[in-house]
Specification:
Length: 388
């Protein structure tokens, strides 16, 4: 009996000891787990951005196009008589004035013809004088009854024929003198000479129609360009009010734009391209524009009032169209959908839910999302542009 009691007592003590150990081990595990739990995450840093204010004001309507410089006058130098070139008075690329001598052709053959014709004229004038004297003599004899009427009429006819022969001789002489004058080829317009393919010794034939060169008028100069037909109402309005300002600029980085006036609007729209051809005239005393040169053309028919503009660099494109981010007063970036109307320099004319003065994120816009925390940079000066 005593042995059974001792056995049950030992079992009870063992159970109590095991429970205590389980409790202690569980408490230690809970303490270790509590000590290894992660600390609360720190707040995300704000994204540095730069902003510019949205602006509302007067913005010019700008029509952009590519144009080509075309001369207003190009004169092709061609001979008017046959002859060999004996003198060249100019060089390729020279600036010439109207009336300047360019080439001289051999005119000795025409001068010989002229001498022959002048001798013929002297003989025919002598014959004319005798015929006129006979006519006067027969007229006086007819009045006294010594000459018949028929003889008098013959004398008058001979005098008229002699006079006609003299006039023909004078016309031939004038023609020959012109041919001699045409042997000296002069400039028919002010401008710059092009290449001269023929030099001294070349023989020119009028029938071959060979060009001796060209003279291109350099001032003023025309620029021809084409714009989409949707701009036609604006262009017509500007032509009526004489307010269309056109500028042309060469592709060189340091090129200075030239300012001209619109002088021509084509009578038809090109149905294959949907464009209309225009021409503008530019003063070109400094030879800023060169024939055949490609230029960038800008035409401003008028200015649009109360236009909403933002920096063009702030405009982004997504699956649902264009959008921007603005920075609110509490430092939150908010996405706004935008409709692009046109680009003017580094500003974009837009339509959308945006008020004048709201801060549009320019630099750093690709790093923010809707609801991101952002802060205005203070290390770099703020850049603000305006079209007003």
């Amino acid at each position: 009996m005593r042995i059974r009691t001792l056995v049950f007592g030992g079992i009870a003590l063992a159970l109590i000891g095991g429970g205590a150990k389980f409790y202690l081990d569980h408490a230690a595990a809970l303490g270790q787990a509590a000590s290894s739990a992660p600390a609360p995450a720190p707040a995300a840093p704000r994204i540095p951005v730069t902003t510019e204010p949205a602006q509302v004001g007067s913005v010019p309507i700008e029509i952009l196009a590519n144009g080509i410089v075309t001369p207003e006058v190009v004169v092709t130098i061609r001979p008017r008589v046959d002859g060999q070139i004996t003198q060249v008075h100019v060089r390729e690329g020279n600036l010439v004035r109207r009336g300047d001598r360019l080439f001289t052709l051999d005119s000795r053959f025409n001068q010989a013809i002229l001498a022959q014709q002048e001798a013929q004229l002297s003989r025919d004038r002598a014959l004319l004088a005798r015929a006129q004297a006979d006519a006067v003599r027969y007229q006086s004899l007819r009045g006294e009854g010594f000459a018949a009427q028929q003889r008098f009429e013959q004398a008058q006819a001979d005098a008229a024929a002699a006079a006609a022969t003299v006039r023909a001789d004078e016309a031939l002489i004038q023609q020959t003198r012109l041919n001699i004058e045409f042997a000296t080829i002069v400039a028919e317009a002010d401008g710059r000479l092009g290449a001269l393919p023929l030099q001294i010794g070349s023989f020119m034939r009028l029938a071959e129609n060979v060009a001796l060169g060209t003279i291109t008028r350099m001032d003023p100069m025309l620029v021809q360009f084409s714009v989409p037909e949707r701009w036609l109402p604006e262009i017509q309005r500007a032509m009526r009010t004489n307010t269309a300002m056109v500028t042309a600029r060469a592709e060189a980085a340091d090129a200075v734009p030239a300012t001209g006036e619109l002088i021509f609007v084509d009578s038809t729209v090109d149905t294959t391209t949907g464009t209309i051809t225009l021409k503008a005239r530019f003063e070109n005393a400094d030879f800023r524009l060169w024939p055949g040169q490609y230029v960038q053309v800008s035409m401003v028919p008028r200015a649009e009032q109360n236009a909403l503009t933002i920096p063009s660099a702030s405009l982004q494109t997504g699956q649902n169209g264009r959008f921007i981010f603005i920075l609110t007063g509490d430092g939150t970036a908010r996405r706004r959908p935008m409709e692009l109307v046109r680009i003017i320099g580094d500003r974009a004319v837009v339509r959308g839910e945006l008020a004048a003065g709201e801060r549009v994120i320019v630099e750093g816009a690709q790093r923010v999302t809707d609801g991101s925390r952002a802060v205005e940079r203070t290390t770099a000066p703020q850049r603000v542009t305006s079209l007003n």
